[in-house]
Amino acid sequence: MTGLDVDAHVNTSSTYVHIPFCSAVFPYCDFAVVAGADHLADRYANAVVAEIGMSEPLSPLEAIFFGGGTPSHVDPSLLAKILKALSDRHGIAGDAEISLEANPEDFTDVRAVEIQAIGFNRVSFGAQSFDGLVLSALGRRHTGAEIGSSVEAARSSGFASISLDLIFGTPEETEESWARSIGLAIEAEPDHISCYSLTVEPGTPLARWVREGAAAPDPDVQADRYEFADSRLSDAGYPRYEVTNWARPGHECRYNLTVWAQGEFEAYGNGAHRYRHGARSRNVRRLDAYLDRVEVGERPIAGSDLIAGWEHEIDRLFVGLRRSAGVRRGPGVDAFLRSSHGMRLLEADVVEMSDDRLTVIRPLLTDEVHRAVLGLADPGD
Amino acid sequence: MHGLPVCNVTHQTRIRNFSIIAHIDHGKSTLADRLLERTGTVSERDMREQLLDSMDLERERGITIKAQTVRIEHRSTDGETYVLNLIDTPGHVDFSYEVSRSLAACEGALLLTDAAQGVQAQTLANAYMAVDAGLEVIPAINKIDLPAADPDKAASEIVSILGGSPDEIIRISAKTGQGVDELLDRLVKDVPAPKGDPDGPLRALVFDSYFDAYRGVVCYIRVVDGQINTGQKLRFMATSETHEAAEIGVMTPKAEPIQTLGSGEVGYLITGVKEIDRIKVGDTVTTAASPAVHPLPGYQEPKPMVFSGLFPTDGDDFENLREALEKLRLNDASLVFEPETSRALGSGFRCGFLGLLHMEIIRERLEREYDLDLVATAPSVAYRVTMPDGTEFLIKSPQDLPDSASRESVSEPYVRAMIITPVEFVGPIMELVTKRRGVVGSMNYLTTERVELDYELPLAEVVFDFFDQLKSRTKGYASLDYEPADYRESDLVKVDILLNGEPVDAFSSIVHRDKAQDYGKSMTSRLRALIPRQLFDVPIQAAIGGRIISRETVKAKRKDVIAKCYGGDVSRKKKLLQRQKEGKKRMKMVGSVEVPQEAFVAALKLDED
Questions:
Q1: Contact indicator for B480, B470 with CB cutoff of 8 Å
Q2: Which of A71, A166, B123, B465 could form a disulfide with A66 if both were Cys (CB 3.0 to 4.6 A apart)?
Q3: What angle separates helix B121-132 from helix B96-104, to the nearest 10 degrees?
Q4: For the stretch B521-535, what's the b/e string if a residue is b when 16 or more beta carbons lie within 10 angstroms of its beta carbon?
Q5: Does residue B504 form part of some domain?
Q6: In this structure, are B57 and B105 located in the same domain?
Q7: Nearest Cα residue in chain B from A198
Q8: Residues B255-271 pLDDT 10s
């Protein structure tokens, strides 16, 4: 973490672009995604370009993140079109981090070169696992071997930063298969690794299966897997910088750092969330509604929450405490330290106060910390 | 007081005062509705189901909790018009005290039996109570329209209990109205007319009261001797208070003010008194000018049998809880309470109830009608402790039991229980009773198929789910009634429950030594299932004195994080966590442990076997 001033990212000029298209929708996924709607991709790219044109200009972008969905699933020319619109509207800084999410099976040598040529310099692979059983249970189409070759392809085509997403706690996973996945992930030598636990999100097929009697993920097993990953990854030179993210120093995802530093950022596409002019707002989630709105020249905003006064301070803690570096002292931290819930968390060594920063030292209990933060009363009231 | 009907009071020979005694669901409320309708007391337009059960809870549960009264005018076949006062009675074992109050105001009781189900223990106990009170008991068999009706069998059960001839028993259907007119005539013929002294000094019995937010305390009274007039100065003989009769009237069933109530009549009295404690149900009202010498025979004070602590979840609600209890007590003289402090639960009240249903109803009313969020502790009975120096005292809370070294002995209340059941369930019932430390008494055949069993049991064993167990072992066919017997010495111990090493007073319980081990085990394992995982391991122990008899551990929570928090989706996550936080409000902090409110009544649901 040395040299990383996480709070400085509050000023990073940043944007998110949502690409909803997927080859298939995975049973645990609750993002705003569509499968089998590729014929809409052109129209969608034009709509995003139009939405960019309707937004207020920012200073030249230092972090751009294409998420989804699967940005690698659409034709690279569409991504290029959107990048150009961003550049026209805001400008793009020379050393900007330009990131996209990709499926390993999409990332052939040829495709890697194409995407790199457009301007992307960071790729985040939805690897999920190196175990065939786990991958097929998750409905993924790639193999463990393909992950290695896609990382190779990205590396040789000149991507400056490569990330792997892994998922743990699926019913098919064993202690050994998870250890093997972590080992193989480290062997592939990415710059950044994210590990997410399988969660049962309402409205997903997984939620229905669990309701109908399928085994729900066991929180203790997931805790074991997380702790194993955390220790293996730090030993291998990937310190954890956020609850679910580990990186070689200097390869932390700049776009996410902006979010966690409570920096403002723009966002485009259906279901995208932004933080601009002191408000957290979101776009309409349905693809057709998004297209309809943008195509008649309307901004596709579905709702907005103004984050002001005490709520702004609570929000700073809320996002900032996900980071290993925690948050610097302020009125919110003082209120936390005075609250009975906060005191209990300190006593149980869930959080710690040192060097004038409040940090979560048992990251698996972050939600408990968050609930305490949300319960803090404004001392001015 | 202008404009009130100054008609002559009804002569006693034209008055019939009666109650209906019936088991739950045997059709009492339906019959009452039908009587009102047939006599034109309530027009069809104003009729709604179960008119007399005015509380929501009563309608929902299909039971009567509060006694009600209604004046019916009936033109009999002899051509005369009679005033019939129906004094409604509750139909559950917990409310026998209310029944006795209602009976004290009557000369007759209609014993209503379901033609399909036959006589039930509850009804029988109340019928005995009516006979003991010198009332004329008029049996009637209801629901003869049901396909499963067997009125002949029900009649022979009644005859074997009360004597008489099966032919004399009137058969009706309250639902269709069949036989209801004959029943009205029978009431006129068989219920004795009141025999008070119309010229003597006023003596009227306060047999019930309720609190009206606008009018203050409203008393139901039965005039025995003399008459009562609006505007009169009255003396309440037990409290020695003097109040004016601001309004008197009759219930038709709406309150209708009148000038005078004569001897034998039933009506209401409003004095303007607003304070809860100043009018005592059971008191005798006389006039201040020429008071009676002796009050009417009072009936026994209600004795609470079951005690439980009620604590507001929010400590700031303590005073609101007190006020609410005081208001409820106005309508329910059997409810007693005194402040209690628990280390675990803060300030609340130790409340005494007639039984478990009564307890449940009070708690539900406090939560519903007074919007209070409450924690209730496991019910307990009153134990009698004898100290080495011979002093004796009652304890109503397990916390107050002195340790075994410093006390001489402990006695517990026993009850005489009457169970009526089809013969085939006698075995399972005996097994249950033995398990509950019961002593088998007699067994009497009502018919060849149904028997009445008499037992003596510790009350403590009856108040915990005994009735539920009885029902489940007899497919719902057995019925139960019980009355207090005496205190008997028992080998009792206090089982304490420790959370995180700290005894939690609200979880302590007094149990028989032979059952302590099982009880401790079942409490700790139940609590382990009820207490959510915390930030640290929480040991749960059961102990007698300093000796641990069972132990379980709630393992520390290790993972509580929704890992996925991509990009900017901060608002949604905040809202989700906010909702979870709201859900945690029904938790009570006990020391450093979050305990859900249900845990405090866990002991109520201890599994049999």
A1: yes
A2: A71
A3: 30
A4: ebbbebbbebbebbb
A5: yes
A6: yes
A7: B563
A8: 889 999 999 999 999 99
- Domain extent at residue B240: 203-287
Encoded tokens for A239: 């310190």
> Domain check: are B497 and B484 in the same one?
no
- B480 neighbors B571 (Cβ within 8 angstroms): no
Question: Is A318 within 8 Å of B557 when comparing Cβ atoms?
Answer: no
- Token digits of residue B159: 């005859």
Are residues A255 and B567, on separate chains, in Cβ contact within 8 Å?
yes
**Within chain A, which residues score under 70 in pLDDT?**
1-4, 26, 28
> What are the strands, taking DSSP E only, across A248-365?
266-268, 273-276, 279-283, 301-306, 327-328, 351-354, 357-360
pLDDT value of residue B455: 94
Q: Please give the structure tokens belonging to residue A321.
A: 């405490």
Residue scoring higher pLDDT (A28 or B396): B396
CB contact under 8 A, B568 and A275: yes
Question: Is the backbone peptide bond immediately before A202 cis, with ω within 30 degrees of 0?
Answer: no
Give the residue from B443, B470, B490 where a domain finishes.
Answer: B490
Q: Do B172 and B52 share a structural domain?
A: yes
What CATH number does residue B556 fall under?
Answer: 3.30.70.2570
pLDDT at B602: 65
CB contact under 8 Å between B562 and A367, yes or no, is: yes
Question: Are A101 and A191 found together in one domain?
Answer: yes
Residue-range definition of the domain harbouring residue A317? 310-374
Cα→Cα distances B223→B4, B207, B268, Å? 19, 10, 10
Residue B427 CA to residue A170 CA, distance in Å, equals 52
Indicate yes or no: CB of A223 within 8 angstroms of CB of B577.
no
Number of domain units in chain A: 2
Distance from CA of B569 to the nearest CA of A (A): 6
Higher pLDDT, B163 or A237: A237
User: Which amino acid does the sequence have at B551?
Assistant: R
E strand intervals along A117-180: 122-128, 161-168
pLDDT tens per residue across span A219-271: 899 999 999 999 999 999 999 999 999 999 999 999 999 999 999 999 999 99
**How far apart, in whole angstroms, are the C-alpha atoms of residue A119 and residue B63?**
78
pLDDT in tens, B422-470: 999 999 999 999 999 998 889 988 888 889 999 999 999 988 778 888 9
* Residues 6+ away with beta carbon under 8 Å from A152: none
C-beta of residue B142 within 8 angstroms of C-beta of residue B179: no
- For residue A366, what are the CA distances in angstroms to A28, A369, B68, B582? 21, 5, 58, 18
Nearest by CB to B567, from A65, A219, A305: name it.
A65
Q: Please report which residue ranges of B331-440 form alpha helices under DSSP H.
A: 356-369, 426-435
Chain B positions in Cβ-Cβ contact with residue A265 (cut-off 8 Å)? 568
Q: What pairing do the DSSP bridges indicate for beta strands B538-544 and B266-270?
A: unpaired
Q: Six-digit token pair at B427?
A: 């075995």
Q: Are residues A191 and A107 in the same domain?
A: yes
| Cβ neighbours around B465 below 10 Å, total | 17
- ipTM of model over 0.85: no
Q: Do residues A264 and A275 make contact, with C-beta atoms less than 8 angstroms apart? A: yes
Residue B394 lies in a domain: no
Chain B positions touching A318 (Cβ under 8 A) are 570, 574
Tell me the pLDDT tens digit for each residue of A269-316: 999 999 999 999 999 999 999 999 999 999 999 999 999 999 999 999
Cβ-based neighbours of B221, under 8 Å, separated by 6 or more? B204, B205, B206, B207, B228, B261, B266, B267, B268, B269, B285
B351 pLDDT higher than 80? yes
**Distance from first CA to last CA of chain A, Å, rounded?**
37
Nearest to A54 by CA among A342, A328, A294: A294
